[in-house]
Write a structure and sequence with these properties.
Elements: H1 19-22, H2 25-31, H3 61-75, H4 81-94, H5 105-113, H6 117-135, H7 142-146, H8 149-155, H9 157-169, H10 176-185, H11 195-206, H12 210-217, H13 231-239, H14 248-265, H15 269-278, H16 280-301
């Protein structure tokens, strides 16, 4: 079976959080004038969590209902691979196909949906990442999430989500090849790396090095200050001083400036409010630490400027 989710074909565009793939069927229902119950298998909530079978005999009424929901979820494969992945795992874990006449799960899935065993395994390993990204308003393709599975294995699923989210927020079109390139540049697994650490590394991969930007600015290519109309002014100011590539202290200032600009682009009041609403304790702690770090920087740069 061919790749149903290839994202590199000509003419595809990056989309964010709209329609059935973004807000999902509940979003359509919520905006409708008449309240409609979402069909079973079209939402993640309509598919029960994976659990062991109730027994070896006939399916219980609840198992039969779960089985039908899972089959509908896999039928929905073309619309949302994460729903299909959860459906497959729930069916397999509960052995819900045991009365179908096809005891082998991989064979049962192939007969009904022509999904190979390896593809089914991928979907079952990817659905949690896809679900989380969909909840953030993104519309990932299965081929894109597939490139994130090495990160999920080494750093955890939250870190894999952070990679996609960071790349998407950078403004460039997200493709499987772009994600593969970023993942290939991530450092080796570290037990101490949090999703925030991974996101910071990804931003550094996507952003040119500060010194490279400064070197380009001396040729008038890039504005080292980051502000419009100031490239010539900033280049002249640096030109009359020591070569920045030979000053460790100036390099540190340039690197700090680049990090601060990057951080400023990635944060806003709505982001902070949502974080506090969803994870109050952790968010307040991080906001406090951010304020402390900014205060330290502010004190460090509060030096009297002298002219020669």
């Amino acid at each position: 079976m061919g790749d149903l989710f290839s994202d590199d074909e000509p003419g595809t565009t990056q989309t964010v959080g709209t329609g059935l793939m973004g807000g999902g069927y509940p979003a359509v229902v919520r905006d409708a004038s008449v309240v409609i119950k979402a069909p079973v298998g079209t939402t993640l909530e309509s598919i029960p969590l994976p659990r062991p079978p109730a027994g070896d005999g006939e399916l219980t009424p609840q198992e039969q209902q779960t089985f039908e929901a899972c089959k509908a979820g896999v039928d929905n494969l073309h619309k949302a691979f994460w729903i299909a992945g959860k459906s497959l795992e729930t069916m397999k874990t509960g052995n819900l196909h045991r009365n179908s006449g096809v005891p082998n799960f991989a064979e049962y899935v192939w007969i009904n949906w022509e999904i190979s065993e390896s593809h089914a395994q991928r979907l079952m390993s990817e659905w949690r990442i896809g679900e989380t990204l969909a909840g953030l308003g993104w519309r990932p393709r299965e081929s894109q999430v597939r490139e994130l599975t090495p990160v999920a294995k080494s750093h955890g699923e939250a870190a894999a989500v952070a990679v996609y989210d960071t790349v998407a927020r950078a403004g460039a079109r997200v493709t499987s090849s772009a994600l593969k390139d970023v993942v290939s540049q991530l450092p080796a697994s570290s037990s101490g790396q949090s999703p925030a650490d991974v996101a910071r590394v990804v931003r550094n991969i996507l952003e040119p090095a500060p010194l490279a930007r400064a070197t380009e600015s001396s040729n008038g290519a890039v504005d080292p200050s980051g502000g419009p109309g100031r490239s010539a002014e900033s280049a002249d100011a640096i030109e009359g001083q020591a070569d920045p590539t030979e000053s460790e202290d100036l390099r540190r200032l340039m690197q700090t400036l680049a990090h601060l600009k990057d951080a400023a682009r990635g944060i806003s009041r709505p982001v902070v409010r949502r974080a506090i609403d969803e994870h109050p304790e952790a968010a307040v702690l991080m906001v406090t630490e951010i304020a402390a770090a900014l205060g330290k920087i502010e004190r460090a740069i509060a030096v009297r400027k002298t002219t020669r």
